[in-house]
Structures are given as C-alpha cells and as structure tokens.
C-alpha cells in the first residue's frame, strides 16, 4: 500500500476529527466501508466466527473486533485514545466585555496554553436537541471556518510577556466571537449552524459539549516532507495507525482495536480506559465464541496481548537536555517503546521483547524512551487497561514534538513504521 496514500488518509482523518465524537464517527465510517457490522450495546448480540464487528459508547469511544474463524483463544489488542487537550465551552458560555461577545472556556486536560493565542478558531462538538414532535436527537456540529480568536496582549502593555508569565485560563483565555453580541446571539448562531449543517429548523437546543479547534489544516512540513504538523496528533495519530493496521491485516487472527475517550483527564468514566467498556465487550464476545465462565475469560485475557499506542516525546533539537542522554527518540527513527520503572507505562521485558521481534519481522527500526530520573513521567491507557483487565501490555508510540500544543509535529516516515509493526502484530499466530 502506498505510503503517500496513507499520509493523505491521515491528513483527511485529522481534518474530519476536531473532537472525539467526530473521530469515532470517522472511524466507524471506515469500518463499515470495510465490512464491519455495528453492534448496539442495548441489544442482544449474535456473533459468528470470522465476523468483523464494532461498537461505540458515548459516541466518543469505539471498539472494533476481528473475530477468528478457528476459535477464540487469544486476542491481539491495540489501544489508543480519542481525546486531546484543548478549550471546551462552559454551559453558560456567553459573556461580554469591552463591547464583545466572548465564550467562557474550561481547559480540558493538560493543554499547552500559549500556542492557543492568535489562532483561527472554529467550534465543534456534540449537541442534543428536541424536535417539535418531542423527539430528542444528538447531532455533531462542525464549524470549520474561523469564527473566534484569543488575542494576545501587545508587548507594549505587558513587558514581562516573554519572561515566563503565568497564563490565567479564567481571565485571559476567553475567545472573542462577535462584536456587540450577547447571550441570545450565541443561541442564534448555534441554531443557524445546526440549520446550515443538518437542516434542523425549529428545534430546541437542550445541551451541548462543544470545543474550540484550530482551523489551520494539517500539513506535510520540511523540504523533503519529513514532518507532519497538525492538531490532535496526540492521540489521533495512534487511532489512525491502529485502524490502518486492523484493516490491512490478513484477517486470520482474533484482533481488537479500542480507542477510549477521557485519557487526558484520567480515564475514569464509563467509556474511559478505567471504565468497564472493554471488559464488557470482551465478556460478551467470550460468552458466545470462547470458553464459558470466569475461568475461560481469564484464560482468554492471559493468552492475549495489548499494545497501547500513545505518542512519545521525541528529542527536541533546542532542548536536548530535557532527555536522558541514552533515551532520546528521533523523529522518523521508528516506533518508541516507553519504559517506566514506577509503572507509569505498562511495558515489561516480556512485552518489549515481543514488540522488538515484531519490528524485526516488519523490518522497521525501534527506539526506547525513559524519562530523566529528575523529571516526572506522564502515563497512558496502558497501565490502566492492564490494571482493569489483567492483560499483558506494552506501551509504544510514534515520537513527536510539542505534545499537548494546539499544533503538534511528528515524522512522516513513522506513520508507516508503526503501521507495519502493528500489522505484523495482528497477523502473528503465536503471542508467547
């Protein structure tokens, strides 16, 4: 499959996925086009060996399953997350100052705030409406043109701006939307956008979950196109690569792709990695196709392996001292095995050895990341999934710069590197 075609699909996916709900909708569309059948958690399931199915929860988390034709004994699991740090609208968002309608925001996750200033911002998310006949409906909203901005304060009025000044998210981050506007204008705008996109006239807006997003499209960067720059690479890049690997696999083995919401805020939700979503789905699948009972389920989980994919910190040319000298992953240097002795990553020597062998088989380079001993370490869905489910797990990721910025950067070659390694994983007959 063409590497260039894969990059184009990635750029399209990033553009279509300004929020987790949009990302799941885009993934579901590709799965259905590839022959996956949608399941409903509220209905009985009838599963057949060799079938391919998927299920969503909260419309922001998704699990796709490739069921083996020859009996369910082990699963090759790929994990990622659909959410990214950013600015989300408060419920009563409208506020006015100096003759402008602004929108109050909450900071979702550990966002790097400074890059949000002076960006062309659109609005996207999920809304729930009541139709004139009383019917309730949830719809996606995508305002992909620049309708708002968070203007910086001029250096002349803040001489300390370049000296590490603290940014106050409550008082300094409210985007400017409309001159002379007020709260009814926001309601009018939202209703107009719904009518424009969905033909919904005369509906009552009951509630919403909306976020700002950068309208600058993702792009290839560098003289030779070495880089990919765009919003939400952490962690839509892993969602895309996991989906590509599943669709490109030969279909011979049992496989799972799980993309959870809420990783950036701790994963403690009904659809997060700390919640029961994956366990619920696997128990229902095992009850029909595997060895029945608790013992059968435990046997299935322990025979399976999980590769948790979440981007890694690449060595920054301007801040090389922020990495351990022996563990500075390079962009386009291959996927990164993430290690932490305090279990912030779930990798152990057995799961790392499996991944190194997969990379050898796929003929891709592999790297290792360990944070400096005098710095804190982030985490992923890996340790959480391993704790909740008990499945042997490995943490890997594509190296990137500017994690949690409004615009992040990764290596274009690494998309192919990790995809090939994961295809080898999904096709692998023996996991031990």
From TrEMBL:
It comes from the Bacteria. Keywords: Aminopeptidase, Hydrolase, Metal-binding, Metalloprotease, Protease, Zinc. NCBIfam families: PRK02813.1 (NF002759). One of its GO terms (molecular function) is aminopeptidase activity. Its cofactor is Zn(2+). Belongs to the peptidase M18 family. It is an enzyme of class 3 (hydrolase). This is M18 family aminopeptidase. Its EC number is 3.4.11.-. It comes from Billgrantia campisalis. InterPro entries: Peptidase_M18, Peptidase_M18_dom2. It holds the Pfam family Peptidase_M18.
């Amino acid at each position: 499959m063409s590497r260039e075609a894969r990059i184009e699909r990635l750029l399209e996916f990033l553009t279509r996925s300004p929020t987790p709900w949009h990302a799941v909708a885009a993934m579901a569309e590709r799965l259905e086009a590839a022959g996956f059948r949608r399941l409903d958690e509220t209905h009985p399931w009838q599963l057949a060996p060799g079938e391919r199915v998927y299920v969503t929860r909260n419309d922001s988390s998704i699990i796709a399953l490739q069921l083996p034709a020859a009996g369910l004994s082990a699963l090759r699991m790929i994990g990622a997350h659909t959410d990214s740090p950013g600015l989300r609208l408060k419920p009563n968002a409208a506020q006015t100052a100096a003759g402008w309608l602004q929108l109050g925001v909450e900071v979702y996750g550990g966002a790097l705030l400074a890059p949000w200033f002076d960006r062309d911002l659109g609005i996207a998310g999920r809304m729930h409406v009541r139709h004139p006949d009383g019917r309730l409906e949830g719809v996606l909203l995508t305002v992909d043109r620049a309708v708002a901005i968070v203007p910086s304060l001029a250096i002349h009025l803040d001489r300390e701006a370049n000296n590490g000044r603290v940014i106050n998210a409550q008082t300094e981050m409210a985007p400017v939307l409309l001159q002379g506007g007020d709260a009814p204008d926001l309601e009018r705008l939202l209703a107009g956008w719904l009518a424009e996109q969905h033909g919904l006239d005369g509906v009552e807006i009951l509630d919403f979950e909306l976020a700002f997003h950068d309208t600058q499209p993702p792009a290839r960067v560098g003289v030779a196109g070495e880089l990919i720059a765009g919003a939400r690479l952490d962690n839509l890049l892993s969602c895309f690569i996991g989906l590509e690997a599943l669709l490109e696999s030969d279909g011979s083995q049992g496989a799972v792709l799980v993309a959870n919401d809420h990783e950036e805020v701790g994963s403690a939700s009904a659809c997060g990695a700390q919640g029961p979503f994956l366990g619920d789905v696997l128990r229902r699948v095992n009850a029909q196709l595997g060895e029945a009972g608790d013992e059968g389920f435990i046997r299935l989980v322990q025979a399976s392996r999980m590769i948790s994919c979440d981007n890694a910190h690449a060595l920054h040319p301007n801040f090389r001292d922020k990495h351990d000298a022996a563990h500075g992953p390079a962009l386009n240097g291959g996927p990164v095995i993430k290690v932490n002795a305090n279990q912030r990553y779930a990798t152990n020597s057995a799961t790392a050895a499996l991944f190194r062998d997969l990379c050898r088989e796929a003929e891709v380079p592999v790297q290792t990341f360990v944070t400096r001993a005098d710095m804190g370490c982030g985490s992923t869905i890996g340790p959480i999934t391993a704790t909740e489910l008990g499945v042997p797990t490995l943490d890997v990721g594509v190296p990137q710069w500017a994690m949690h910025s409004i615009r992040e950067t990764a290596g274009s070659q690494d998309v192919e590197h990790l995809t090939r390694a994961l295809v080898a994983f999904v096709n692998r007959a023996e996991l031990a």
